[in-house]
Structure formats: C-alpha cells, structure tokens
Amino acid sequence: MKVIGLTGGIASGKSTVSELLRGYGFAVVDADVASRTAVAAGSDGLQEVIAVFGGEAVIDGEMNRPYIGQLVFNDPEKRAALNSIIHPRVREIMALEKRAALQNGRYVVMDIPLLYENKLEATVDEVWVVYVPEHLQLERLMKRNDMTQEAAAARIASQLAIEEKKARADVVIDNSGDLQTLEQHVKKAVEQFFERNEKK
Ligand SMILES: CC(C)(COP(=O)(O)OP(=O)(O)OC[C@H]1O[C@@H](n2cnc3c(N)ncnc32)[C@H](O)[C@@H]1O)[C@@H](O)C(=O)NCCC(=O)NCCS
Ligand SMILES: Nc1ncnc2c1ncn2[C@@H]1O[C@H](COP(=O)(O)OP(=O)(O)OP(=O)(O)O)[C@@H](O)[C@H]1O
Q: What number is the ipTM of this complex?
C-alpha cells in the first residue's frame, strides 16, 4: 500500500485537495489536526508550551493560538522552540494513524505542510505538492485568515519557498485556477496514481 505525502505552501490548497482525495477513498492523516491534538486542553504538550511561553499562552484552558502565532511567525527562535515541543508529538500521533490506515488496507495521504522543512520525504512513497504562485498564496491567506499583508507575508516567509517545493515534487497539483479546474487536476493525478500502482 502506497503512502502519498501531500504538501505545499501555507494556503496553497492542501486541505481542499485532501478533501477531494478523501472522496476518492484515500485515508487522510492531517498534520494540522495532529498539531492541535498535541497541545489539547490538559495535555503534557500544553504544559510544556506554558513552561516556555508563559501563562498568556493559554486562554480558557486552550492554547491561545493568535497569541502564539503572532510570536512564532515573527521570531525564528521562538518558532523553533514551539516546533521542538509540538513536532515530536505530531510525528508520534501521525505514525499511529498511518499504521492503522495501512492495516485497514487503505491508500494513505499524509497532509504535512512542513514535509520538506522537516526532511520527512523518506517517510512517504511519493510527494505531491499543491502549487500556487506566491502572489496567490498571499492573496488567499489574507482573505481566509482576514490577515494583514505583513502578517501573511511573515507566515509565508517562515516556510521553504513554494517554487522550491514545486521543483522537488514527484507530482505537482496546480491550484492557480478555479476550484473546478483544481478538481480536474486532482482527478487526473489520481488516475495516474492508480495506473502506476495497480496496473502491474
Ligand atoms: C503557531 C500556531 C499556534 C498558529 O495557529 P493557527 O491556528 O493560526 O494556524 P494553524 O495551526 O491552522 O496553521 C496554519 C498553517 O500555518 C503553517 N504553520 C503552522 N506552524 C508552522 C510552523 N511552525 N512553521 C511554518 N509554518 C507553520 C502551516 O502551513 C499550517 O498549515 C500553530 O500553527 C502551531 O501550533 N504551529 C506549530 C505546529 C506546526 O508546525 N504545525 C504545522 C504542521 S505540523
Ligand atoms: N482554486 C481556488 N480558488 C479560490 N480559492 C481557493 C482555491 N483553492 C483553495 N482556495 C481557498 O484558499 C484558502 C486556502 O486553501 P486551503 O485551506 O485548502 O489551503 P491549505 O494549504 O490547506 O492551508 P494551510 O497551509 O493554512 O493549512 C481557503 O480559503 C480555500 O477555500
């Protein structure tokens, strides 16, 4: 059973593509969901976040995401500190979910925004990159998160450039067009995937 690593830049359309892939029967393991589980209310992960970032890191028992986001996307050292708390836990959660999906005989999609940044290529069989040029990434991120251009640019700058991810991909899914066009691209990529993997 093959494992696809799905990545791209922030707001390039990974979640949109992973929903379409669910529709084709793939099991999707999502790093953003796992990263929330890693610091859920009452968890050891959240305790560590409080130890490092202080009491303001929590609001109503939950991690104060806007506060932490504003800190870490403007300071690489703080980002590294948060990553070192959350990423090992995310890897553990995702490995369990992946194993369960494979045991059920499913093709698996690992949706991992930081796949290249964290050198996780070897944990998947092939990498699909959801690509949009950076100006569209900025535009969609500002719109989705109701964010200033400055805040959106800081988030984009905290990741490997989208052009670099595109260059390294096994499969590129272009999401520069409308949603209908994206659906067609995904359909084609899925057909080619099954041709490669089920023909022999
Ligand atoms: C900083 C946090 C609190 C901001 O929360 P917020 O709800 O605003 O954003 P959300 O978690 O939905 O992330 C949105 C996107 O931001 C990007 N992103 C998130 N964390 C990081 C990071 N540490 N470095 C680079 N990009 C990141 C990803 O593309 C992600 O898909 C949160 O992103 C977080 O806990 N990040 C650390 C864990 C992490 O690296 N998650 C990403 C994949 S494991
Ligand atoms: N083809 C498209 N045309 C217009 N808007 C789109 C298109 N594809 C996605 N979007 C919108 O762009 C935003 C980003 O898409 P999505 O949330 O799927 O990205 P993502 O890569 O999962 O983001 P993140 O890295 O933050 O998890 C969303 O608001 C989504 O509705």
A: 0.97
